[in-house]
Design goal:
48% of the residues lie in helices and 0% in strands. This is Large ribosomal subunit protein mL59 domain-containing protein.
Length: 187
């Protein structure tokens, strides 16, 4: 496996080799903590204190999350990766998801299908009434063409009853008109 393929397959290892404080050149006389100051690739930076705009972090939030998950899956401690500004916001108990606040046993519970209303009503001893209780049948709304279909088929059947007689009468008038236009003499 080439180095490029290994870096694609294990992005955490390539990140640690490239960005960890041990791989950065040491500055004489200064003992910064891990990923302190401008060396944090997860934090936005300013080119200078006078600059108005911030540069985006070198690693996007999506890539940060991916690296954190990979480190967690490998069982590495959380301080292997630099602190993330987004992690500080989501670490508060109010901002965390309800699923994250549940205990581990509760998280493993499987969801159960919705309890039908009939079981509830049976347990309470109440009668079951549907939305169409006391009506002749379920209300049919349907599309416009569905509502008009019955009337349209009735009209069509009525028109087709005398269709043969009408067609014969029309043919006869056409033959009569043709015969009337012909001259009786051959020249």
């Amino acid at each position: 496996m080439s180095a490029k393929a290994a870096a694609r397959r294990f992005p955490l290892y390539s990140f640690l080799a490239r960005e960890s404080p041990a791989s950065l050149p040491a500055t004489p006389g200064a003992q910064p903590g891990p990923f302190a100051g401008t060396s944090n690739p997860f934090a936005p930076t300013k080119a200078s204190p006078l600059a108005r705009s911030w540069d985006a972090p070198r690693y996007s939030l999506r890539r940060q999350k991916k690296l954190r998950r990979e480190a967690e899956a490998l069982g590495l401690p959380a301080d292997v990766l630099p602190p993330s500004p987004s992690l500080k916001l989501s670490s508060s108990p109010l901002a965390s998801s309800p699923a994250a606040r549940l205990s581990l046993e509760r998280r493993r519970l499987q969801s159960t299908p919705h309890v039908p209303a009939s079981k509830v009503l049976d347990g309470l001893g109440l009668d079951k009434y549907g939305p169409y209780a006391g009506r002749k049948g379920a209300a049919f709304k349907g599309k416009l063409w569905e509502r008009k279909k019955e009337q349209r088929t009735a009209d069509l059947a009525k028109l087709l009853e005398g269709a043969d007689a009408k067609a014969a009468a029309w043919r006869k008038t056409q033959v009569d008109a043709k015969a009337k236009g012909k001259a009786s003499l051959p020249f």
